[in-house]
Amino acid sequence: MCSGDLGGGDVLDDVAALVAERNRIDAALARRVRAAELSQAPERDGLKSMASWLGGHCRLSPAEAFRLVRNGRAIEHLPALGEAHDAGLVSAAQVAEAARAVTPQRLSDAAAAGVDLAVIDAVFTSVAIEQEHADLVQVVQRYLDDLDPDGPEPDPTEGRSLTLSKHADGSLSIRGHLDAVGGERLQAALEAHVQADRPAGDERTRAQRQADALVQLCDNALAAGSLPIIRGIKPQVIAKISLEDLATGSGTAEMGFGAVISAARARWLACDGAVSRVVFGPDGAPLDLGREHRLADRHLRRAAELRDGGCVFTGCSAPTHWCDVHHLVHWIDGGETSLDNSALLCERHHTKVHHGFRVERQPDGRWRTWRPDGTEITVPAALGAA
């Protein structure tokens, strides 16, 4: 850019105007989300909370959905901040910071201490409008410290978090936080493998060695067979691949949690694992158990998991290990225990389809869901989709 192009005042004005407009839209959205929550609107689509509805129907991340719900609640308790948000003067991120001060427990603590919440609201709003974001973070934290000067009773589980973010190529990013004791346990377990696996000429970085140690910990736990049983099946690494691709090493394989890997890597996994043959037909694993068996055995369950990949109820993303194998035509009504008559449904939606909701698999393999009144639950198409 040449020096003559530096006077882009109009462009900067446009940016400022768009930020203000985004703030106003975020405020309106938070208020509508709160209204939907208060009216229990997600129940209409078979979901329990606005956070789950926003994730399933609007494709928001869990963190963003939770922030929207929390912001909607917060501006009810902080009306001045809410008005500034409506006017475009305060961002959703600033409201999210202030929301930390008006959780149910902290509202109760403030009432017990005789805190005038209107004063706190005014202070937060003034700082949010006139000062930098970091200043608001400090003011909110100072208020929380004053509200509970001794700090909370030690609860190591409260501050722990672990987020697994899957990328398009199937790789995983890990972000988390552990308390001092939990962190010590993790470091001790990792360090044992780090120090035990130091071959001559090892050029791995410390970060690489620790990542390998974490994978080794998981391998050991899975191999020991001592992990909790999930839906009658031991947890294990799964790679779904055709017999031809497995034999030739070409093509791809789909793993149990959705990642896609090369057929060559699947062959590598098969070298140290069991290969189960699942045939979607009458001459393979016993997929069709007829009328003599009401409950799905492990073969039928695995076939349903491979086909459905999780709960099939529209807008739900529950993984396979949360799901039951549901009879589309109830067994008591003559329905057979077969793959064609089965659908994976999480516990909540399994209950829903026994109380008026209905799921149905289309000839092209897609699942559709209907409400008790006969209207279909749909997820809006992505922008730009045909």
UniProtKB/TrEMBL annotation:
Q: Which SMART domains match?
A: HNHc
Show the Gene3D superfamilies listed in the entry.
1.10.30.50
Annotated ranges, domain HNH nuclease: 299-351
InterPro entries found in the cross-reference section:
DUF222 (IPR003870), HNH (IPR002711), HNH_nuc (IPR003615)
**Source taxon at top rank:** Bacteria
Annotated Acidic residues bias: 146-156
The entry's protein name is: HNH nuclease domain-containing protein
Origin organism of this chain?
Geodermatophilus aquaeductus
